[in-house]
Here is the input.
Amino acid sequence: MNAQEAQLDYPFGDALPLAGSTLDVAPGVKWIRMGLPFALDHINLWLLRDALDGPQGKVRGWTVVDCCVSRDESKAQWEQIFSGELDGLPVLRVIVTHMHPDHIGLAHWLCERWKAPLWISATDYNTASLSIRGSTGFGGTNSADFFASHGLTNAGYLEQIRGRSNYYPGLVPAVPASFHRMMDGQVIAIGGRDWTCISGYGHAPEHIALSCADISLAPTVPAAPAPRGGAAGLGAARRPAGLLISGDMVLPRISTNISVYDVEPESNPLTLFLQSIDKFKALHPDTLVLPSHGKPFRGLHTRIDQLHAHHRDRLAEVMDACAASPCSAADILPVMFKRTLDLHQTTFAMGEAVAHLHTLWFDGKLRRLLGDDGVYRFQPV
Here is the structure.
């Protein structure tokens, strides 16, 4: 546990759901953890007890939140969940927080398997629908040319990026033919409780988090001793004011990837992200956060402050580097990332470097110059 994590409260300690099983985190709320074939090796998925009106009256079952990437191992884990964790009840609907492959990859399979509708923002549904026809923003010639224009010169990496035209459809082979739109401020009744949609930008086109202020959603754990850092444990004397399914907008251990992509080459996603996470400050500070990666935690306001501080520090480092000499995004990689990066990590890191340069550019602190070599570099105004 690092110093920042010590400021957060992890009510379930080191407990994790076993593969193919669940862990109860609140009445009617189950936590699933599935493996991913990336450096970020897992995703958290959620089951919410639900009841919907059907032709013969109320139908009891479950709402699924997020799906994992499409691969046989994930389907096998889902089948274990279906047989052992649903109390013999069906999946009634599938909610997807955003269109990244680890969240929407198996939505088509789940929706077909259970004849259940997909709920997602319109922007992310349409972006996913376009992306399954090619790897726009995730690979191909346009992506390689974009990274080259920001200083990436590794010929092997650029060639692999050009050849990665099937990256997104390889993980998301299809999306459902129709969907229910989720929008900011919309209230969705799930299992007799109201969940409010909170839109977020910068990480995905229109990410939707879900907040429920029902204080009956106390976590199903006994009072815990105070963790390092001094935060009080959860117990009857201090119950969280509901839940936040935060998706990728607020993660406890890492900072969400914020990238500029070739499809929107002059975007300013970091500013959008920082503005978006401030919307969660309206929630109770004792809200139990259910993130897509990492472990459920309490300390939402503290974590938002940490994320602001993290990006403020990175922006200062970028500014100092550009003041020393004009920098491309590739020049910024060793400034922002102190470790060796593989190809997969490099593409995300390049997107993040451009995002930080663009924030300073849009704020009027840097200017952008296009060199004779076709590379963008930034220097102080």
User: Anything to note?
Assistant: Residues 222-238 have pLDDT under 50 and may be disordered. Residues 300-324 form the longest helix (25 residues). The first strand starts at residue 23 and ends at 26. Residues 309-380 form a domain with the Arc Repressor Mutant, subunit A fold (CATH 1.10.10.10).
